From TrEMBL:
InterPro entries: DNA_Rep/Repair_Clamp_Loader (IPR050238), P-loop_NTPase (IPR027417). This is DNA polymerase III subunit delta. SUPFAM superfamilies: P-loop containing nucleoside triphosphate hydrolases. It comes from Chlorogloeopsis fritschii PCC 6912. It holds the Pfam family DNA_pol3_delta2. PANTHER family: DNA POLYMERASE III SUBUNIT DELTA, REPLICATION FACTOR C / DNA POLYMERASE III GAMMA-TAU SUBUNIT. GO terms for biological process: DNA-templated DNA replication. NCBIfam families: PRK07399.1.
């Protein structure tokens, strides 16, 4: 029965809880998958669906896995946070494909919760039950969360899976109606296995990236992609503290010209790890943390970096 979860590494407790629920025919109407981003919560949801829909039959799992990978199973609704743009709702991926830059993060909207209710108003077409997955459930506004609460009270022939970083990040009334499934950061061995299995073993050579990831393969991949998006010349320059004021001002200008605010915020994470490995001085980390706060308050980025590097020069 655990074959469905063969792809999920480093989460034995979650696998045990979910497989036993199916084995004992005690599947809850709602689950809350809690843990850091990138540790396997979304993958676990897909594995759980395979198990629920196939009843453990390997030949059925293959067919169902194909449908789930193509996102065309008629009894599955996967809900992601969205942006509102010109009358359309766009996921973060769709917004990136269109080249849209948004200052506010995407959210789960009230109309998306209404679509869940509409989806569950009909009977399952192929599977024994319907499944709804709500990613980043913590982004729901109170009105959307209250609307979802009504659905959780009467889910019908359905199981809902909410994915969030912690129980505290969503309304207590939602938490109380879900069975909690914890997900944990991976240890070094599990991180190594996951990154090698999915073809990202090169990340293992970047200690700063691994430190930023903090046991999350997904975060490690995202951090490495950010790293690759920065030119080698700029990266080499920023990983050394400027020797004088002229270099500090030049570096601040180059960062402001080459990187958008999101990339600059990530660069602060990277520099905190890189500088700490080189010098282990808490004062440097604190100065970079102040730069992060200033950027988040929409201060002029070039000025933020100029002040930061000028202080580091001293």
């Amino acid at each position: 029965m655990n074959d469905s979860f063969a792809q999920l590494i480093g989460q034995p407790q979650a696998v045990e809880l979910l497989t036993q629920a199916v084995k004992q025919n005690r599947v809850a109407p709602a689950y809350l998958f809690v843990g850091a981003n990138g540790v396997g919560r979304g993958l676990a949801a897909r594995c759980f669906m395979e198990l629920l829909f196939s009843n453990g039959l390997s030949e059925a799992i293959t067919v169902i896995r194909t449908k789930l990978q193509k996102d065309n199973h008629p009894d599955v609704l996967w809900v992601q946070p969205t942006y509102q743009y010109q009358g359309q709702r766009l996921t973060a991926t769709e917004a990136a494909e269109k080249g849209l830059k948004r200052k506010a993060p995407p959210v789960i909207r009230l109309e998306q919760i209404r679509e869940i209710a509409e989806f569950l108003s009909r009977l399952p077409l192929e599977a024994p039950r319907q499944i709804v997955v709500v990613e980043q459930a913590e982004t729901m506004a109170e009105a959307a969360a209250n609307a979802l609460l009504k659905t959780l009270e009467e889910p019908g022939q359905a199981t809902l899976i909410l994915i969030a970083p912690s129980p505290d990040s969503i309304l207590p009334t939602l938490v109380s109606r879900c069975q909690r499934i914890p997900f944990y950061s991976l240890d070094t061995a599990a991180m190594t296995e996951v990154l090698k299995r999915i073809g990202h073993q090169e990340i293992l050579q970047h200690q700063a990236v691994l430190s930023i990831a903090a046991g999350s393969p997904g975060e490690a991949i995202a951090a490495y992609q950010q790293l690759q998006a920065i030119s080698p010349e700029l990266l080499q320059a920023v990983t050394k503290i400027p020797k004088n004021y002229i270099q500090a001002l030049q570096l601040a200008r180059d960062i402001d010209k080459a990187l958008d605010t999101e990339a600059q915020l990530w660069l602060i994470d990277y520099l905190q790890q890189s500088y700490w490995q080189q010098w282990q001085q808490p004062s440097i980390v604190k100065q970079l943390e102040q730069a992060r706060k200033s950027l988040l308050c929409y201060a002029q980025p070039r000025l933020v970096w100029e002040c930061t590097f000028l202080k580091l020069c001293q």
